[in-house]
Amino acid sequence: MSASSSLSSKVALVVGGSRGIGAAAARKLASMGAQVAVTYKTRRDAADEVVSDITEAGGKAAAFEADIVQAPAIDSLLQAVSARFGGIDILVNSAGIAPYRPLGSMDAAFVREIMDANVVGTVLLTQAAVPLMTSPGGRIVHFSSRLATSPIPTSSVYAASKAAVSALVHAFSKELGPKGITINAVAPGVIETDMTAAIIQERGRAIRSTTPLGRIGQPDDIAGIVAFLASPDSDWITGRTILADGGLS
């Protein structure tokens, strides 16, 4: 089976698929033949642009609004995607937030906001999607971060939330394995997106100089890993977090 058609019978739900890594993953999965549901929280225009790119290339895609911190919103999303495409085979969850604060300037609201978006959303989305997924053969991909194991100053709560994602993926794999559903995570280093623009402006030269591959990662670098984890080629991998940071760690 060629890579371009390896997902031709699959439906992929890409949460947070309107920008950055999520958008690159949506386009990549579509290029492999998947029908793609692209979700957004606020930027409908960005989601529509991704959908337009996919459909103009001959693929099938649609945009859906969703806030994955809210269980009713998740249920509505999954029902809408299933009604539109006939089911869900692949779940890619790239939604999340990454605010940094130093110790001494945090409050409970700051911590809860990060944990809700990055941890609660991961749990609720996985839990709601599994009953609708292909079993066996379903694929779930979440996002951790290299900071989960190599935190930097001011990243503590974000790093902890992403460490939780890796732990959840490992634990969920024990329950989903008997169903024939794999669940994995990708842990990127700094990837050039609108979310990381300030970091790259401030530390880009240092990041490049200390990264063995000598550059800043691009969304397509991560989209290829997501596509592999969503494809039949990854049948024997589950519960893992794949670190992708150009050798920095």
Question: Explain this structure to me?
Answer:
There is one protein chain. This protein has 249 residues and is α/β, with parallel strands linked by helices. It has one domain (3-243): Rossmann fold. It contains seven helices and seven strands. It has helices spanning 20-31, 44-56, 71-85, 108-129, 156-176, 197-210, 219-230; strands spanning 11-15, 35-40, 61-65, 90-93, 139-143, 182-188, 241-244. The chain has a seven-stranded parallel β-sheet, with helices on both faces. Strand 1, helix 1 and strand 2 form a beta-alpha-beta unit. Helix 1 crosses helix 7 (219-230). The longest helix has 22 residues, at 108-129. The termini are far apart. The mean pLDDT is 94.
